[in-house]
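BUG: 3D viewer hangs when loading the predicted structure for this chain

Environment: internal workstation, default settings.
Expected: structure renders.
Actual: progress bar stalls at 90%.

Input used:
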Amino acid sequence: MKIAVIAVGKLKEKYLKQGIDEYLKRLGSYAKVQIVEVVDEKAPENMSDAEVQNVKRKEGERILSNISQDTYVITLEINGKMLTSETFATKLDELATYGKSKIAFVIGGSVGISEDVQQRSDLALSFSKMTFPHQMMRMILLEQVYRAFRIMRGEPYHK
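Structure tokens produced before the viewer hung:
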């Protein structure tokens, strides 16, 4: 399975980089995982709705340029579907079973994900109704993907 995590913005925090590197190393025996960073737009605090839409559109174009037609796209959205770790593992297993070996997880920028990216999405997934920093979501996502592979293989993992 080939998994891409397409994320808006550069990761700056050293502790998050270390955590992400650890999960990428652990995932190496299960799947080929790559992080794709797309440039984020400047998003000052008091933007108009039109400016917000423009930022989303530009970031969305960059995201979509990294997704091929045969890729199953999972967007991380606050209003997406919430799954248990076991159900998430089952979903990934089903995708692999039915020939969807290329998966892209999309983590938007600070103002969210464009409508075009949402329309391209095959599954909108939510980890919580809470808002998390998008940089931190990379590590949380990778941990859950790692947990899913452990569950799929019947390997022990902390519950």
